[in-house]
Amino acid sequence: MSISIWDGFSVDWTDLFGQDWNVRAGDMAAHQKEIGRAAAAVAALRKTGRGPRAGEEVLFPHLPYLFQEKRLISPEEIAAMQALSAECRGGFDALLSVGIGGSYLGDQVLFDTCCGPYWNLMTPEERSGRPQVFFAGQTADPEALASLLRYLRSQAEKKEGPYRVLVLVISKSGTTVEPSGALSVLEEALPSFCAEARFIAITDAKKGKLLEDCREKGWTHFVVPEGIGGRFSVFSQVGVVFAALLGLDTEAFLRGAARTEEACRSEDWRTNPALALAAMKYIATVRYGVTAEITMPYSSRLASLGGWYAQLLGESLGKKETVDGQPAYGGRTPVCAVGTTDMHSLTQEHQEGRRNKLLQFISVDEPAAYLDFRLTEGGRPCTVAMSHVLDAALRANAAALASAHKMSCRISIRKLNEEYLGGLMYFFFLTIAYEGAMAGIDAYDQPGVEAYKKILHGDLAHFAG
């Protein structure tokens, strides 16, 4: 059964709902209390901006209207963003985005989806004057940053004119180890071979080391709005400023999110696709033993979406306690895959392994390119569009899984552009918000992450003078 969310954007839960081996209509009725509670909780969140815990501010439902919400972004920030976007057209050779987690993953999705895998190999003219793009601060592996610096230095030496780099640092606190450490290396290394190394930041409005650095060093900075957690930040300045620097259509990105928000406000799951899918996933978890969720886009340009969604799912639903202190259901382990690539590696386990997983396929109806395969099928040569092979492989995967009574769903978008990407990413925000409310947990905090950070900082304190 395929349900339209809006024009060219739909979800099909044929292999997740309505059969005797998956979630049934009776299950939805039996869990109507939790579904109703979730619908009411998210409706209240939209109105009040308050999460499930006292004093907790959660404002992600306002982000699709970012440019109209002056409390989330100021006119001065919009003007600065537009000025930097114009300057990036021919003004910089490279853009380095420094961040980790929610300050990195969403921007990686924007870049991969809208710019494609060979952006950095194009000429400046083919990039419409926009810079090459690199990510740093998303790992503590020294080889990654050292290799990037070697490449940038070689590019600077090859260029006849001045070589300019723009560094965008994204961190609310400014003390997260990986990005703050990478920033210290870049500040020291880049001036030695760049004619200009300019630093700008997206950080907290009121406090933090990075904010202090911006004020002390005169860096242009933007604000991560209060009430916006990192994994929910891609529609805030975190994603929108990055997109603007690349000349992407930020208004279309937000418009896609707004279309999804407005299509998924009903408190009846039968007319709210986000609430319905969240309920089916929740029931599959608590009633049918699903403990893992595999996100499998059938598009190479959407490969990094799996990593972004893994953070959203894992940090939001992986909680040991409900808000009132009772044991929680624990969510599901997120797994990333790409079709058709991982049909030749992971599908064996999906097909014949434990019945504890749910696959979420993502497809693109209108590919950006058309090429033919020349094949031999049934002993006879034939010519088949590659896009047909891609879609046929997805359908074959789903059918084979269904034959083994393994649950799956399919989300389809018409094309890969800013508007459909915005609609898709925001749809996942809503499914997570609804499911968290069904489970009675706080989907907006991350106490487990803080536990390892405390241990890590304790270890690193031994190096402090």
Summarize the structure.
The protein has helices at 25-30, 32-48, 75-91, 105-115, 142-158, 177-189, 209-217, 237-245, 250-263, 273-288, 303-317, 347-352, 386-403, 418-439, 447-460; strands at 2-6, 9-12, 94-98, 132-136, 164-170, 196-203, 220-223, 292-297, 333-336, 357-364, 372-377, 380-385, 407-413. By secondary structure, the chain is of the alpha/beta class.
Protein model, in words:
The protein has helices at 25-30, 32-48, 75-91, 105-115, 142-158, 177-189, 209-217, 237-245, 250-263, 273-288, 303-317, 347-352, 386-403, 418-439, 447-460, and strands at 2-6, 9-12, 94-98, 132-136, 164-170, 196-203, 220-223, 292-297, 333-336, 357-364, 372-377, 380-385, 407-413. With 465 residues, the chain is α/β, with parallel strands linked by helices. The strands form 3 sheets. Strands 1-2-13-10-8-9 form a 6-stranded mixed β-sheet, with helices on both faces. Helix 11 runs parallel beside helix 14.
Give me some keywords for this one.
465 residues; globular; five-stranded parallel beta sheet; 15 helices; six-stranded mixed beta sheet
